[in-house]
């Protein structure tokens, strides 16, 4: 009687591979492991990088007949990249075949921001766009309100390595406010992340002037301080010679909305001559604009009686007036002489004496001009 030994044949796996062109994130990927010869497999198992695929999210296997197992990835991601091994076991032993799956992975940007508080005008700003993941090379572009930052000469971008881009503004201003987007792109796709920059903008005053001409006593005058830029609310203050307006000046002010502020004088006099400043302030800062109001100061000395000829002259603090003092005199008929100061300044404060002389006598009369924060002329 003859005994024949049982012969077991190892399975033979038909070589398989993933597509030569790596799939993109989100693509469907399938691969088939077929044991076309040898004894029928008892078990067919898939491994990813040496570990069973049972616990890999988004990946499934299915046996088709006794000799085929299909691995499916419904939506491939970066976590699915690696070496896939098909293990086939029967009574004769175990065989395997491995194929590598590469995945085209788009960039992933780490969140960034400019901070919780708005920046003030003139402060520096910097923000960093870091690419946490994605295949190289990665092209990064910065946008401000959907415009490339390259059009802004005062915004710079520096590349640090292959995955970090830093945007810097040395001194922020109003036109820097808005949405900053870091746009990252590679062959697998594109992504972006945005952060908002808020800038506190100080006021801007449109220059104003009382004009080049000196005002005459009794004339009305007005100027308007217009806040042409800056964040609201804006607090506006008028000053005279560096101090808040005082009631004795009889100067009127009014506001028309938050950006137009008027100053009015119904009848100017010597006390109104000086520097008028409009100061505007908001949370970002303050700014001033000053205009000079020049007012003529004049007085007339009249001799009511006495023989002709009569000679009239003016003295200042007991001394004859000089030509460079800013004070002029003029004869008005035979009995009067007028003194005029085109623009009253502190140096004009003092005693002004009118001296009248004829063959019979010399007489005089003195008045005082006080310039002490305000201006007063005591008239004849």
From TrEMBL:
InterPro entries: Ig-like_dom, Ig-like_dom_sf, Ig-like_fold, Ig_I-set, Ig_sub, Ig_sub2. GO terms for cellular component: membrane. Residues 11-102, 107-198, 203-300, 301-370 form the Ig-like domain. It is found in: Membrane. The keyword Repeat applies. Keywords: Cell adhesion, Disulfide bond, Immunoglobulin domain, Membrane, Repeat, Signal, Transmembrane, Transmembrane helix. The keyword Transmembrane applies. Signal peptide: none annotated. It comes from the Eukaryota. This is Ig-like domain-containing protein.
